[in-house]
Each structure stands twice: as structure tokens, then as C-alpha cells.
Inverse folding.
């Protein structure tokens, strides 16, 4: 090795991807083992009971097994088409069709209603292509606004705590250019606090929806909680489906409440999943850094000798502050080649660094206090996709622990 070097972005991404793929494979294998151990005995016992019942029915009523099996196949086909012994609501009237398209574009896909005609299947392909894309965009916009709302509330609580502790001037106003308040410089809401708030909101929403389903559908509370998670997470097994009976008490009110609960639940769980994915990404980055430190102990020792006591290196003062991702990567790249030399910084460079740091902190304080305007200036040397796309980019721009400096 010729010196301690950080992994390139391509290698870091590949390493993170391979590590995540290995963890997902191990997670899937562990889950398959657990579910196989839990459900396989019950499945074998149920199959044994059904075979015994089938032979007893054939013997008592003097019906041959082939004829009985043919009748049961016809019943299964009717059940797949939505025909039940008890009266159910029409599947393809307007409320039923609206329920169907809602499960399509949200990728829930219960499966209790499927198009039977060729024209319906072809139209579903085109309809789902644009519908799912638009719904994912809606989920991302919901994520951006819920994070902005939580950031505004947490910002107000943070300022209130600072005023009580005397660290914030009483006449401080949002949008003012006070750069001397160190506790507000570079402040962003914690990803763990946001995850906790979204988790509490998701649990509360699921408990309220489960109480409604228990009272109206007649399910037990555990089955209602199970249905809420399967539906809100867009897994959509279809073993339990709400609002399928022909008649309900206060039917219009229940259908409206069911729609609101499913919409809010899917949006909330989607946001929570993205926050949890950020935490998982941080764990992967921590594991990769541990691997990087252990793979080359000689480089680790050489880099430790470079960091001499009382030596001020370029960018050291910048790394002491909580600077966001947008500004951290821009100014660290200019001095990356000189950080490895361990040389003392000149007074002129230190003064320039302080001026740049002060300007960055003033700009960030103003943007944070005003709610992060959309037209935030970014590095013009980077392309439009350098900061990430989609929900991950939203979380990187809004939360603190996603920064590389953390």
C-alpha cells in the first residue's frame, strides 16, 4: 500500500451493494427457516385432515373420488372468480372497481379481484405503468412534506430549549443572519428522532384502524393488526380483505374511513421504511469502514503518525462543525490532496478557511430557519443526480445523520 486512501465512491457503492445483498440473502434464509419450522407441521396436519374428510365423504355418500375432485375444482374456479356462498358485494361495480384500481396503483394487489377479459388485462398493463409511477411520486412528495413538517416542529422545540437555557438571544427571529449562535449552525433534525416519531404515528394509526376493523368486520384484534401491516406495507396477501361484505352498518362512512386509513397508513409506512433504510445504510457504512481499517494495518499506523499533535491540517476546522452533505463534499475535495501530507496550514489559508466556513454557516442557518427552500444552490460542477434521486435524496437533504461527516 502506498498510503491510506479512502475508497472511491464507485468502490464504496459496490461494497455497500454486495454487503447488503449478502445480508438480505442471509435474512431471507433465516426467515424461510423460521416460517418453515412454524408453518410446515400445521400444513401437513391440515392436509392429513382434509384427505381423511374427503375419503369419509366419498364413502358415506357413495360418490367416487374423481367426481368429487372435479366438483371441488369447479368450486375453486368459482371462488377465484369472486363467487362465494354468502352474499358479497359486486366486484366490478364502480366502488368495487375503484377499490381495485386503488390496490393496483399502490402496489398492494390483494388478488381478490382480477380482470378476466383480454382487454382488461391489456388495459391493466398500461394503466398500472403510469398509475404506479404517479403513486410512487405521490409517496415521495408526501415523504418530503412530512419530513419538512417534522423538521419545522423540531426546529421550534430546539429554539425553545435554547432560549430557556440562555444560549439563544431573546430577540432572535427566523431568517435573521445571526451566525454567532453555535447551537443553531448546521442544525438538522436527527434521523433517529424522525424514525421514532414516524414509528409512534404508524403504531397509533394501525391500532385505531384495527379497532375499526375489529368492530365492523368481526375479526379479532391480532388479525386486524396483521391486516393493517400487510396492507400498509403494500404486501397485500389477500387472505384478509376489508369491505367485502354486501351490506354494512353505516356503509358509506365505513368505506370512507377504510379509504382514509389505507391511504394514510401506506404513506406513513412508506416514509418509515425510507427512514429505516437510512439507518441500515449507516450500519453498512460503519461495517465497510471497519473492514477498511482492518484490511491494511500498516496504512492505519502510517496515517496515525501523520496526525501529529497540535498540527492543524486543511479542512480540520470545517470537519468540527455539523456541516450538511451539500457543503461538506464541495469544500473537502479542494483540500483532499493536501490532507495526507500532515503539513501545518498557513495563517492565510486558515483565515480563508474561516471566511468560507462562516459564509457556509450563515447560508445554512438562513436556509434552515426558513424551511429549506427548494432552489438551494448546489455545486455547479456536479450533475443533477450527484446528490441522489428519490426518497433517499430527500432523506439526505433533510436529516443530519446521513452526512458523511457523521
Amino acid at each position: 500500500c502506498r498510503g491510506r486512501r479512502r475508497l472511491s465512491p464507485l468502490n464504496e457503492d459496490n461494497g455497500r451493494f454486495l454487503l447488503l445483498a449478502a445480508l438480505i440473502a442471509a435474512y431471507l434464509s433465516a426467515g424461510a427457516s423460521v416460517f418453515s419450522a412454524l408453518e410446515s407441521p400445521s400444513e401437513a396436519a391440515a392436509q392429513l385432515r382434509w384427505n381423511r374428510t374427503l375419503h369419509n365423504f366419498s364413502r358415506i355418500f357413495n360418490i367416487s373420488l374423481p367426481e368429487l375432485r372435479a366438483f371441488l375444482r369447479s368450486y375453486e374456479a368459482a371462488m377465484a372468480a369472486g363467487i362465494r356462498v354468502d352474499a358479497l358485494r359486486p366486484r366490478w361495480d364502480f366502488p368495487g372497481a375503484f377499490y381495485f384500481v386503488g390496490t393496483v396503483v399502490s402496489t398492494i394487489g390483494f388478488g381478490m379481484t382480477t380482470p378476466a377479459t383480454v382487454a382488461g388485462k391489456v388495459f391493466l398493463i398500461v394503466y398500472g405503468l403510469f398509475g404506479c409511477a404517479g403513486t410512487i411520486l405521490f409517496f415521495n412528495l408526501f415523504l418530503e412534506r412530512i419530513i419538512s413538517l417534522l423538521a419545522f416542529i423540531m426546529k421550534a422545540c430546539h429554539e425553545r430549549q435554547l432560549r430557556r437555557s440562555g444560549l439563544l438571544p431573546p430577540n432572535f427571529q427566523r431568517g435573521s443572519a445571526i451566525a454567532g449562535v453555535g447551537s443553531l449552525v448546521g442544525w438538522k433534525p436527527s434521523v433517529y428522532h424522525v424514525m421514532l416519531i414516524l414509528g409512534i404515528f404508524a403504531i397509533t394509526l394501525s391500532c385505531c384502524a384495527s379497532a375499526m376493523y375489529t368492530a365492523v368486520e368481526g375479526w379479532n384484534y391480532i388479525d386486524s393488526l396483521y391486516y393493517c401491516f400487510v396492507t400498509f406495507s403494500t404486501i397485500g396477501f389477500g387472505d384478509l380483505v376489508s369491505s367485502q361484505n354486501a351490506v354494512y352498518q353505516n356503509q358509506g362512512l365505513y368505506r370512507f374511513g377504510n379509504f382514509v386509513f389505507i391511504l394514510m397508513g401506506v404513506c406513513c409506512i412508506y416514509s418509515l421504511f425510507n427512514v429505516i433504510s437510512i439507518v441500515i445504510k449507516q450500519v453498512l457504512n460503519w461495517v465497510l469502514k471497519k473492514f477498511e481499517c482492518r484490511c491494511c494495518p500498516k496504512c492505519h499506523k502510517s496515517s496515525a503518525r501523520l496526525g501529529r499533535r497540535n498540527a492543524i491540517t486543511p479542512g480540520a476546522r470545517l470537519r468540527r462543525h455539523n456541516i450538511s452533505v451539500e457543503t461538506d463534499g464541495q469544500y473537502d475535495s479542494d483540500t483532499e490532496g493536501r490532507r495526507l501530507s500532515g503539513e501545518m496550514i498557513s495563517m492565510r489559508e486558515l483565515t480563508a478557511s474561516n471566511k468560507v466556513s462562516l459564509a457556509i454557516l450563515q447560508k445554512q442557518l438562513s436556509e434552515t430557519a426558513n424551511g429549506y427552500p427548494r432552489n438551494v444552490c448546489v455545486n455547479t460542477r456536479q450533475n443533477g443526480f450527484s446528490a441522489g434521486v428519490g426518497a433517499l435524496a430527500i432523506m439526505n437533504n433533510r436529516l443530519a445523520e446521513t452526512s458523511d461527516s457523521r
